[in-house]
Amino acid sequence: MEIRELRYFAAVAEELHFGKAAQRLEMAQPPLSRAIARLERQLGVTLLERTSRSVTLTEAGAVLLSEARSILSAVAAAERRTRQAAQSRPRLVLAVKSGTAGGLLAKLLDAYRAEPGAATVDLLLCEAHQQQELLHNGQADVALLHLPFDSTAGLDSEILYTEGQVAILPASHHLAGRSQVRVAEVSALPELPMARWPDHDGSYPAGPGPEVKNLTQLFQLIALGQATVIIPESAGTDLRRDLAAVPVLDAPPVTTVIAWPPQSRLRAAADLIRVATRL
């Protein structure tokens, strides 16, 4: 199989429409159809079921789509990192979930800028679980992840620090004045259901609370009395006046790590990681 064939197949498999896939690839439809048919003959399997009205993936096609996405992401990452290595002044992309690790991030960037020959660091602010995908597909070189919420599967990482968690409540709520609370007390508030974050596959767990993707959206809902949440202590600093953060005595600790692809050979990334582990 060639990379070009995988790009063709991925486009058709994602669009489930030959015409739309051809437009996306900026090519005519007949050669695209022939390329997919040739790929099926080469593999000896049917990848797509076609009717006059629809295109659907077979089980074999679903497997190839997953593999194709990984391969194409790896190729794109290799292209970007190769060009990056040739630059006279290297650049690094650091992925961080928006609204988290603010204090650490400021210290890290200040300390790294003071290093001789420091690269330019471009911050990529993400929503929940996006950092891992950005590292795997080569759009980011390094990321800050928070365990156990994020996953380091397929990545190398170093632990930076571990912290407790806090409940974020409307400042007027009767629990807001407490010195500490327990998980059961927060999760049992009928008027303030726990907000729901997406899982790694993008789906949301069942529950009455609102679906959220970022802290800005979440804090607005809490201020309006629509939800509550238990989050890492560092994410609950510098809150708006109408919110309160209360330590949760029995919430599991959260560990922040710096992570990177194991195949990375970027000197600038290694320097940033070294600085982070010294903080």
UniProtKB/TrEMBL annotation:
Family: Belongs to the LysR transcriptional regulatory family.
PANTHER family, sorted: HCA OPERON TRANSCRIPTIONAL ACTIVATOR HCAR, TRANSCRIPTIONAL DUAL REGULATOR HCAR-RELATED
GO terms for MF: DNA binding; DNA-binding transcription factor activity
Pfam families: HTH_1, LysR_substrate
Domain HTH lysR-type: 1-58
Protein name (Swiss-Prot/TrEMBL): LysR family transcriptional regulator
The keyword DNA-binding belongs to this UniProt entry's keyword annotation: yes
GO CC term, one of those recorded: protein-DNA complex
Chloroplast is among the record's keywords: no
Keywords: DNA-binding, Transcription, Transcription regulation
